[in-house]
Design a protein that fits this description.
The complex is a heterotrimer of chains A (295), B (269) and C (284). Chain A has 295 residues and is mostly helical. Chain A contains twelve helices and two strands; from the N terminus they run ααββαααααααααα. Helix content of chain A is 77%, strand content 1%. In chain A, strands 1-2 form a two-stranded antiparallel sheet. Chain A is globular. Chain B has a six-stranded mixed sheet with strand order 6-7-8-3-9-10, sandwiched between helices. In chain B, strands 2-1-4-5 form a four-stranded antiparallel sheet. Classes of the chains: A mainly alpha (295), B alpha/beta (269), C mainly alpha (284). Chains A and B meet through helix 7 and helix 8 of A and helix 3, strand 6, helix 4 and helix 7 of B.
Chain lengths: 295, 269, 284
């Protein structure tokens, strides 16, 4: 056999095994996390774990509700802020902005995406927390430190801006010019065309972008941890502190070995995150891939 | 090489003699990214008849059509000079209101582009935008326009299903009905049958012939036989200039210009 | 007929809203960098970036964060190299050796897409418990492995996107010349070279900025990293720790450290941008 073909075959074998290994890593993650979670699940049933709000590892109470609610609160707040802003800006960039403006704004989104979470955290501590504590809370007549789910939500919102804007821009670009022309030629204004035709057509893509952003928000650890207050109680208002799941893992992993079932509980938390995020990612990727194939 | 456009102008005016023409184009020049796409166009398009714009691909025929309802405005790098008069009003005047102009002209594009909504809403979209909120009136409009394009019997039981569930031929008729629903005076067709099967093509062609008693119709086509079948007048565009304009049989059977002759015989395409 | 005036007014209002959202989104970027600059610059000194922590550093005495800077650079470089070595063959395999559109290709691409989105804390948690299980303590090596896992999907997916942009003719021409797939791969890699570097830089940026992955696996040390099996400091973690100190001087150093990290990231972004425009030109 000729040496070129041997090289080809060799490369094929090597890369195939690398692929296989990466797939195995995923399986390993799932198996490992599940295996580690079993002791907790044997001790308490799943429903109790998810719905009880008492978290006292020393007494063996592992109620995840505060953390689940903390995660949901910050994620929801971030979406409420980010979704309208991102849709409006993306529409502006695609439909109204000049080439020059678009070509200078989109790279800025890449910069925003490249900023590491810890820097968002620093910004959150320096700017968002004081802003919430000193300006926003007093408006509502609330006395708050600023370390709250609202601060977490604001920081997260800024973190998911770039991913949402870049996906929505891509989605809007795939909408055929002729469809816009069809609406315009009926005498619709540009805004009416956007509102009633373009956004409607782009809906699946926008949903995919939002779902992807949700999964990003769910998993964000350090930036949220730095501004959220981290008190294991179900938040009652946006000015209350919250304790999202990733922060729980990050804050307590060091000491988990000394308390029975604690490590199992934290692994369960990681499993929970993994499953939710895996699912959300899967959904949005499937939608986006389908859209790409259609375009 | 070929006749100067100014000569065509006279002929043009002869053809569209009687009443004020719906569409008059005066000294129209279009540049895209610095390239001269349309050069000194002067035209009067005859009322209540079908006028086909023919010419080799890339000669500017679609651009010419799109300047008629200002759809070129949105493209990048486009510069338009000159005037297009619709009912005597210059649509490129500074104070012209573009949505109003576009409403007067129904556009039928190359492929059907139904709006992402139900069959009913596709037709009702235009009237709703222009302020018609009365459900009964809307339903009447929908029924009337669907009947107008011969689609009513086929879809009357599924008006609420998505417009994309229709066949491509049906979609194109729906798009025509959608355009008619805003009561235009002019219909613009941009190779409107190029994506359709022969039977649907024939349906659309017959519809257009029927509609010309109420509308002024301008079509872009690259199929000479189609131009011969449906149109009363033909404009031959070459390299951004109007080379010949006249009655269909004159242009196709006795072209005056050498280039038109070559095109009609199929030497250039 | 609803008046055209009110319809146009609506359009105007919508446009203003859109502009405002655009401004607030781009503004947030400048706000972040501006605040870090403003707070960090006064504390930034040559000592900060050239020395390791001296005694009493964490109560405001002298020293710097060289240990963390080097630790992060080592970690990110090693992880990026590993991820590139593993990631490039995988993406070539997925694009050249497997029929595109086949179930394996689709499923694997989807898998890497999804892995891309898995947060680093999950990787960190798993790596940590593996290390406990194997009896390895937090170390530079542990961090490198975790971050490699984190960055492989980035390399695979970015290169995959690039391969998609290669004109099909180029693939066919090389095939027609009788090249093996491995030889085709070399041609294609050459073609997308600037893009490959972009992918590597992206991975590097993610690697150097990550906290949640290294928090549990790499530990922290005041010494310069020398051995793979010893804990090492990382820049993001140094920022995190110093920021939680109550002493203003130490907090100030956290801001300065944040500034250093910002500089590194900005350099990476600018390089990426230059390479990306090169790739675009290359494509014609």
């Amino acid at each position: 056999m000729n040496i070129r073909l041997i090289k080809d075959l060799l490369f094929k074998r090597i890369s195939a095994s690398l692929l296989l290994i990466s797939v195995c890593v995923v399986l390993l993650i799932i198996i490992g996390l599940s295996a580690k979670s079993i002791p907790l699940l044997e001790n308490q049933n799943l429903w109790e774990i998810l719905t009880q709000s008492i978290w006292s590892p020393l007494k063996g109470n592992f109620g995840f509700l505060p953390f689940i609610m903390g995660t949901i609160w910050v994620t929801l707040i971030s979406l409420i802020i980010a979704v309208p802003l991102c849709i409006l800006s993306s529409v502006y960039l695609v439909e109204y902005a000049t080439d020059r403006l678009r070509n200078s704004v989109l790279p800025l989104m890449n910069v925003l995406a490249a900023i590491p979470p810890v820097l968002y955290g620093v910004w959150g501590v320096l700017f968002v927390v004081p802003m919430v504590g000193q300006w926003i809370a007093p408006i509502f007549g609330v006395n708050a430190s600023g370390y709250s789910v609202l601060s977490g939500g604001i920081v997260l919102a800024v973190m998911i801006f770039p991913i949402m804007v870049s996906i929505i821009v891509e989605v809007l670009k795939t909408i055929p010019q002729e469809l816009k022309a069809a609406s315009l030629s009926l005498g619709a204004t540009k805004w009416e065309t956007i509102k009633k035709v373009i956004l409607k057509k782009a809906k699946p893509g926008i949903i995919a972008a939002v779902v992807l952003a949700i999964s990003r928000a769910f998993g964000e650890t350090i930036a949220v941890l730095m501004v959220c207050g981290n008190i294991p109680r179900v938040p009652q208002s946006i000015f209350d502190a919250g304790y999202p799941i990733p922060a729980l893992i990050a804050n307590n992993f060091g000491e988990m070995m000394s308390i029975p079932l604690y490590d199992s509980a934290l692994m369960f938390a990681a499993l929970l995150l993994f499953v939710i995020i895996f699912g959300f990612n899967l959904i949005s990727r499937i939608i986006l891939n389908r859209l790409e194939e259609e375009a | 090489m070929y006749a100067h456009p100014s000569i065509e102008t006279k002929e043009t005016q002869d053809i569209a003699s009687s009443s004020t023409p719906h569409i008059q184009i005066k000294d129209l020049n279009v540049h895209i990214d610095g390239k001269h796409i349309l050069k000194n166009i002067n035209l009067s398009i005859p009322n209540n008849s079908i006028t086909s714009i023919i010419g080799p691909s890339g000669c500017g025929k679609t651009t010419l059509l799109k300047t008629l309802n200002r759809l070129m405005d949105d493209s990048k790098g486009v510069e338009i000079n000159g005037s297009v008069l619709v009912n005597g009003e210059d649509i490129y005047a500074k104070d012209a209101e573009v949505t109003h102009i576009r409403k007067k002209m129904g556009l039928l594009s190359q492929r059907p582009f139904p709006l992402p909504m139900s069959i009913y809403d596709n037709i009702a979209y235009g009237p709703r935008i222009h302020g018609q909120r009365n459900k009964k009136v809307l339903t009447e409009i929908v029924e009337k326009q669907l009947k107008n394009v011969g689609l009513w019997e086929e879809v009357k039981d599924r008006l609420d299903s998505s417009a994309t569930s229709l066949s491509i031929g049906q979609q194109q008729r729906l798009c025509l009905a959608r355009g008619l629903a805003v009561q235009p005076e002019i219909i613009l067709g941009d190779e409107s049958t190029s994506a359709l099967d022969p039977i649907s093509t024939q349906t659309i062609e017959n519809l257009l012939v029927e509609l010309k008693k109420d509308y002024t119709i301008v079509l872009v086509t690259h199929i000479l036989r189609q131009a011969r079948r449906v149109s009363d007048y033909i404009i031959f565009v070459y390299n951004g200039e109007i080379v010949e304009f006249g009655k269909t049989e004159d242009v196709l059977l006795n072209p005056k210009n050498e280039i038109t002759q070559q095109y009609v015989k199929g030497f250039i395409s | 007929m609803s008046s055209i005036k009110s319809r146009l007014r609506q359009e105007k209002i919508a446009k203003i809203l859109m502009q405002l959202s655009g401004i607030s989104i781009t503004g947030s970027l400048f706000l972040i960098i501006g605040i870090i600059l403003y707070k960090g610059l006064p504390y930034l000194s040559w000592e900060m970036v050239s020395q390791t922590p001296q005694g009493g550093f964490y109560i405001g005495k002298s020293g710097g964060i060289l240990n963390a800077i080097l630790g992060s650079l080592y970690l990110a470089t090693a992880a990026t190299i590993l991820a590139t070595i593993i990631g490039i063959p995988i993406s070539i395999y997925l694009n050249l050796y497997i029929k595109s559109g086949s179930l394996i290709a689709k499923a694997s691409k989807l898998l890497f897409d999804v892995l891309y989105g898995i947060p680093s804390i999950v990787y960190g948690a798993i790596a940590f418990s593996m290390m406990v299980w194997l009896g390895i303590r937090a170390s530079l090596l542990g961090g490198i492995i975790t971050i490699t896992l984190l960055t492989i999907p980035i390399v695979v997916r970015t290169i995959d996107e690039l391969v998609k942009t290669i004109p099909i003719d180029l693939k066919n021409v090389t095939k027609a010349l009788g090249a093996t797939r491995w030889e085709i791969a070399q041609v294609l890699l050459k073609y997308i070279k600037p893009g490959v570097f972009t992918a590597i830089l992206l991975a590097f940026g993610r690697a150097i900025g990550d906290v949640a992955g290294v928090l549990l696996t790499t530990g922290f040390s005041d010494n310069l990293p020398k051995y793979l099996d010893e804990p090492a400091a990382t820049l993001p973690l140094a920022i995190f720790f110093q920021l939680s100190s109550p002493i203003p001087e130490v907090q100030g150093r956290a801001y300065a450290s944040a500034l250093v990290l910002t500089f590194i990231i900005l350099i990476i972004v600018i390089c990426t941008h230059i390479l990306a425009s090169k790739q675009k030109k290359h494509k014609i």
